[in-house]
């Protein structure tokens, strides 16, 4: 097996022009910090990786694997036509919160609603990037254009701070067909921050996850259960 190490500065240099316009909408700081571009790596991975790399799995560091990660590659075979990214749902009502204004103006919307019928948004801790599909998808590449990002953030009154996760979530509200939704067991998030911050009444509708966990995600520094 071959290991290739990438220079962060080099990647950031290639990323910045592609994602600069996104940063003011989806970064923690209000400005556009050059170094923050790396939080948008997945969004533009298809423009940075050599053409011969057709699929990438990108994962956070705060994960614990209960199964062979190789099994996750099989999920690429389950992508419906037109889908370019595999991603699990966000398991807290964070986007119920973020989209509050859009939800108030559109009381019948599924935006921010819990599963199985709602659109709770995505969590980018485990990502399947079909780079070949991302390169070929006219729609996906249009959505990276600054004017498109601007239009969508205005439509949804969106202001986030979670980088690529916010971009994928917002795009998923508009174009769910670009995404293959991974089962929650592939990214079993453990953070319960929003339970104690105003959403205890609906929290469990977002947080529940049936089935044997394949990957635990100890987000917001949550301890991962011992075996």
From TrEMBL:
<dbReference type="GO" id="GO:0005789">
    <property type="term" value="C:endoplasmic reticulum membrane"/>
</dbReference>
<dbReference type="Pfam" id="PF01501">
    <property type="entry name" value="Glyco_transf_8"/>
</dbReference>
<dbReference type="InterPro" id="IPR002495">
    <property type="entry name" value="Glyco_trans_8"/>
</dbReference>
<dbReference type="InterPro" id="IPR042465">
    <property type="entry name" value="XXLT1"/>
</dbReference>
<protein>
    <submittedName>
        <fullName>XXLT1 xylosyltransferase</fullName>
    </submittedName>
</protein>
<dbReference type="GO" id="GO:0140560">
    <property type="term" value="F:xylosyl alpha-1,3-xylosyltransferase activity"/>
</dbReference>
<dbReference type="GO" id="GO:0016266">
    <property type="term" value="P:protein O-linked glycosylation via N-acetyl-galactosamine"/>
</dbReference>
<dbReference type="InterPro" id="IPR029044">
    <property type="entry name" value="Nucleotide-diphossugar_trans"/>
</dbReference>
<keyword id="KW-0808">Transferase</keyword>
């Amino acid at each position: 097996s071959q290991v290739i190490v990438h220079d962060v500065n080099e990647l950031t240099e290639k990323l910045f022009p592609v994602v600069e316009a996104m940063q003011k909408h989806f970064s923690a700081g209000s400005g556009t910090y050059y170094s923050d571009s790396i939080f948008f790596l997945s969004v533009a991975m298809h423009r940075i990786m050599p053409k011969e790399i057709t699929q990438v799995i990108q994962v956070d560091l705060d994960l614990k694997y209960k199964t062979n990660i190789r099994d996750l590659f099989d999920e690429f075979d389950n992508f419906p036509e037109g889908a370019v990214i595999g991603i699990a749902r966000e398991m807290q009502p964070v986007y119920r919160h973020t989209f509050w204004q859009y939800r108030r103006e559109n009381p019948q919307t599924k935006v921010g609603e819990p599963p199985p019928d709602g659109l709770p948004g995505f969590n980018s801790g485990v990502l399947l990037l079909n780079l070949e599909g991302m390169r070929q998808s006219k729609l996906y590449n249009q959505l990276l254009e600054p004017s498109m990002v601007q239009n969508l953030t205005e439509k949804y009154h969106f202001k986030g701070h979670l980088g690529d996760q916010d971009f994928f979530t917002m795009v998923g509200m508009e174009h769910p067909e670009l995404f293959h939704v991974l089962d929650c067991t592939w990214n079993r998030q453990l953070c319960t921050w929003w339970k104690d911050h105003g959403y205890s009444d609906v929290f469990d509708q977002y947080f529940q996850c049936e089935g044997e966990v394949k990957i635990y995600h100890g987000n917001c520094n949550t301890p991962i259960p011992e075996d």
